[in-house]
Amino acid sequence: MRKKFSLVIIIFYIMSGINGCFSTSNAEKKVADKTKQYEEACSTPFGRYPETITYTLGKMTGVNNSNMPAGDTYENNAYTRYLKEKLNVQNIDTFEATDNDYNNMITMAISSKNIPDVMLIDDYEYLKLLVKNDMIEDLTEVYKECASDRIKAIYSGYGDTVFNNITFNGKLMALPETNIEYGPNLLWLRKDWMDKLGLEPPKTLTDAENIIRQFIEKDPGENGSGKTIGLVCSPEITSKNGYSYMTQADIIFANFNSYPKQWIEDENGNAVYGSVQPAAKDALAHMNKLYNEGILDKQFLLRAQNNIEELIINGQCGSFFGLWWAPNNPLIESKRVNEKADWQPYLISTNADGSTSFCTQNPSSKYLVVRKGYKHPEIVMKINSVLFDYLRCTDESLKEIGDYYKENVDPTARPLGINVDYQDALIRGYENITNALNDKIEPYSLQLIEYSYYEQCKRYLENPDDASLEDWAAYTSRITSTSVLYNANLKRVKGVFFGETDTMTRIWWKLEELESEAYLKIITGEEPIDYFDKFSAEWYKQGGDKIVEEVNKEVKSYKEQKNVSN
Length: 566
Hints:
The chain is 49% helix and 10% strand. The protein is of the alpha/beta class.
């Protein structure tokens, strides 16, 4: 009996030792697995952290809580919940603010040298200041390791320009937002008015001017004699940095090979400022002619943007230059007031061969930065990889984000507040949605946002007469107006500089005022056309010559960096 008991004890201890070994082995395996998962998360685009990683955030918000559903916040919404599920990351907002208030918060944070772990910068001077004071992380390795192949392809599609402004001494000091190409502004006209007057679609600027003249003189909108407004135009006249904005006259200037407010190359390969080139004088002379004839709104100097939109919405105006997305704003409101208002887009040629020239835009104007010393700088790249590469409509966990698109929740609901997409994303989206509508591809192969537009366009086509205004706007913007750009003969005039030199930092505001005043005086006839020569000379005299020198030095530096990298 004693022998049996001893044997049991021996067996017990043997088994205990074995179990102990198993326990130790299991524990070690768990630690090893967790370590591997952590390392993969830190060095891959889509790896999930084993434990929640938090980061403090300076959050640029949108108006009306970005139109998020009741109960959702900037720390807890469809995007943050999805990122928590996929990456196990969570933002803790140090401050939340919109527009100028946001920039004031950024200024205070930088001044106190107490910035959040991550923040969005939309002022290049802030970025230079942060780099100068060694306050932000070098993101070169972060980009190499945690940008997905698709994200890298997106950025490379913009060429070197997207990284020029954020590369300091060969180091990537921020992650840039990408500004997709919208193309030239379209001329939006009341087609129902044209039909009433028996007018053909315009092809040239002369055609467009004739249509607007007849709108004013023959009053097809029945506003009353002399009450129909001509071409509405922003007092800013043209856009900056190649961006196309609503109700601006870039197309008119392009008819004279003029590109105000843009840095372009002259015939000798030097960077020049378009606003002071001789071609601008010819364009201003034509603008003055349109103003004197009343084709250009006589009150344009006094119009705020909301007042311009009221004229369009209420049917007092039947013409404006606007973007492809004009159906979303303000034309949807025009249809709400008058469902028979038939707004159609037309592209005006600027060259004798029927093509349309426009200046390429700044590829990036917002920058994500990470505080120097933050342990996980890679999360900014991982978040962008997930949100701009990973979203497919077949992913059931994306239903909430899909609903956001349907409910018109503003993109500012995303924690990092930037967009990363192909330069030709507008055209890619048009092709994909059109192919899905024509049964050439499966709808479920679309990106999430494309699928949302596909559903709206499909509903519109099934019953155009009874379609919702939202579905009309989606179809008219994503298909009707984008098809005009898709089928157009476009010629790009390359913008060569979008940064800010040292002299620009000090005096650019003064030169901008000088330019604006001169342009408006010439257009309205307060000064003769030859006043342009006086303005141009004064522009150079007040510091423009120094800025031109600095810009050319910067552009030369970009080219040299490109040659070295090649």
